[in-house]
Amino acid sequence: MATTASHVERWRDEPLRSPSAPDSFWGGLAYATRGVWERRDLLGLLARRELKAKYKDSALGLLWGLARPLTQLVIYYVVIGQVLGAARAIPQFAIFVFAGLTAWGIFSESLSASTASIVNNSGLIKKVNLPRQIFPLSASIGTLFNVGIQFGILVLATIVLGQFPLSWNLLLLPLAFAVLWVFSLALGMILAAVNVYLRDLTHLVEVLLVILFWASPIVYSFPFVAQAAGGGWLVEAYLASPITLGVLGFEKAMWVAGADQVWPDMLELRLALALLGSLVLLLVAQRVFTKLEGNFAQEL
Predict the structure, then answer these.
(1) Considering just the CA atoms, what is the radius of gyration of the chain in Å?
(2) Rounded to whole angstroms, what are the CA distances from 128 to 25, 30, 192, 218, 297?
(3) Least crowded by CB within 10 Å, which of 1, 8, 41, 138?
(4) pLDDT digits (tens, 9 = 90+) for 244-276
(5) What global pTM score does this model have?
(6) Hey, CA dihedral for 277, 278, 280, 281, is it positive or negative?
C-alpha cells in the first residue's frame, strides 16, 4: 500500500500531457499547428466571441472601439501638438499621431488580449480537449477588427486632407503590420502561459505598455530621437525594438507630409529582419507554451 501511495503522489505532481504530442521541437510545432488548423472553424468562432463579449449590452457597440484612440488623438494633438508646440516641427501632426496610434493599437491590443486569454477561458480549458494555443491566437485575431476600423478612419482622414499616400512607401505597410502583430503574438503566447501561474502579470503588462508607448515614436518623430541621442549606438539600440520599427514603417507609409523627414537608413531591411526575428521568437514561444501548458487545468 505504501508503494501504491508513493506512485499516486508522484503521478499527481506530473503535468498532464497529450499522449500523442511529440516531445521534439519540430514535432511538437507540427502537432500544434495541425491541431489549430483542424479546428480553424472554432478559431473563428472564438475570435468572434471575443469581439461580441467586449461590447455586449452596449448601446454604441463597436463604436466604443474608436473612443480611446480618438480621445488619445485629441489629447496628444492639443497638449503635445499645440500647447507644447510639436505640431510646428511636425507637418500634418494629426495624421502623424493617428498613424502612430493605429500602429500601436496593433501591438498593444493584441498583447493585452492574448496575455489574459488562457485565464479568461479557464472553463473551456478544464472541460474541452483542444490545442490551447488556439486561445491566445483567437484573442489576438479578435483585436484586429478594432484596428481595422481605426485604420479605415486614418485612410479617410488622409483622403479628406488631400494626404492619401500614393508612393512606394505604401509597400512598407503590410511589412510593418506583420512585424507588430507577429511580435505581439509571440510575446502574448509566452505571457499567457506564465500568467496562469503568476496572476499579477496582467497588471505588469499594463505598466509595461505605458512605458513602451512613450518609448516608441508615436507622439514625437524619429529626428527628435536621433538629435537627442546624438546618433551612434544609442540610436541603433533604439531601433533594435520591433515595436519602434513597426511604428516607423507605418508612419512612413501613411504620413505623406513626412516624406522629407529624416528616417532610419535601410528601414525596409530593418523591418524584414525584425519580422524574421519575430517569427523565430514565435517558434520559441510555442515551445515555452507547450512546456508550461501541462498544469493549466490544475492551476485554473
Answers:
(1) 22
(2) 25, 21, 18, 42, 10
(3) 1
(4) 999 999 999 999 888 888 899 999 999 999 999
(5) 0.85
(6) positive
